[in-house]
Design brief:
The chain is of the alpha/beta class. Helices cover 47% and strands 13% of the residues.
Length: 327
């Protein structure tokens, strides 16, 4: 039997990621019981304190086991944490050495959504790939530059360390773990019972690019706004650096430091975000949308669109444009 420790953070967390992890593994056990077989998972809800109050006291989670009682576990599930991240990490600092020690003893570790911040704080992600919610990607990069963040991924898996993308995509990681430990047949059954779409690979179609502006470099912030207000025009890095009287090399360095994107990457993402909004709400054809965001080469536009969103422009419009769907 595999011992699973689902952590109950001592701070604001996403309740669904605690309950969801418990539910998926419990479904495996209930399915096996219906077949006259022994359960596969021994699931423990593990906390630092006897209870955690969430959502302004509307919900209370009472772990059945306290951290100091768990001497050995096989799999650790770190749910999504929220609120001010440095504060949340401090409130959950007792988990950090325990997770590290358990991993060194052979346990595997999985973070769900923004649980990646707590996992990264252990040092176990250094040099490894990791995902988290796309909205937290910039903050994660700044906090943990030594981690290979892959925010487009739903699941990462390296050396017994797992992570998932944002929000309810953690359920895809749960099904992935069920398949890894219990086989494909059980994973398919659980995905059908819980109606979780199996084999989702990317969270890119869900990402909304707003641009990192939480910095103090005013010329760079103005350059960002200029790009966003001129998506239909062709704008070069030379023009931008000249506009703000900064050498190109220095402009590129400052821009990347402030936004976590190069100027070219930022401009591409701004244009594709504008194209996405048009495809979601208008009846313009693909070429009209392409021209409206400053592209003239259809192949280049389609290639960049798919690189950023994971979908072709046509597939994206069919997925999100209700009018086109009805038509």
């Amino acid at each position: 039997m595999k011992h699973v420790s689902v952590l109950v953070p001592n701070s604001p967390c996403i309740l669904s990621s605690v309950i969801g992890a418990y539910k998926v593994f419990s479904t495996v056990n209930m399915t096996l019981a219906s077949q006259g077989k022994r359960p596969f998972f021994d699931i423990k809800m593990v906390g630092i304190t006897p209870e955690t109050s969430l959502y302004d006291g509307l919900f209370v989670v009472r772990p059945d086991t306290l951290l100091e009682e768990i001497k050995k576990t096989d799999l650790i599930i770190i749910p999504a944490i929220q609120g001010d991240m440095p504060t949340s990490l401090r409130m959950n600092s007792a988990f950090i050495p325990w997770i590290f020690d358990q991993y060194k003893q052979g346990a595997e570790v999985a973070s769900l959504c923004t649980g990646a911040f707590l996992l990264a704080s252990t040092g176990l992600l250094k040099g490894k790939k990791c995902s988290t919610h796309w909205v937290a990607a910039d903050a994660f990069r700044q906090a943990f530059p030594e981690v290979k963040l892959m925010p487009e991924k739903i699941i990462t898996d390296e050396f017994g360390v797992y992570s998932s993308g944002g929000a309810y995509s953690f359920l895809n990681l749960m099904i992935y773990l069920v398949e890894k430990f219990c086989g494909r047949e059980m994973a398919v059954y659980c995905s059908k019972m819980l109606e979780i779409e199996i084999e989702r690979k990317s969270q890119s179609p869900f990402a909304i690019f707003t641009g990192q502006k939480d910095h103090e470099d005013e010329p760079i912030k103005k350059a960002q706004l200029f790009m966003e207000n001129n998506v239909s025009n062709k704008v070069s890095v030379e023009e931008l650096s000249d506009m703000f009287a900064i050498s190109r090399r220095n402009f590129e360095r400052r821009f990347k430091k402030a936004t976590s994107n190069t100027p070219v990457e930022y401009l591409q993402r701004v244009k594709i975000e504008a194209a996405k909004k048009s495809l979601e709400s208008s009846r313009e054809n693909i070429n009209e949308v392409m021209y409206s965001v400053g592209y003239s080469d259809s192949k280049a536009f389609r290639t960049m669109f798919k690189k950023i969103t994971g979908l072709s422009p046509v597939s994206y419009r069919n997925k999100y444009n209700r009018e086109m769907l009805v038509a």
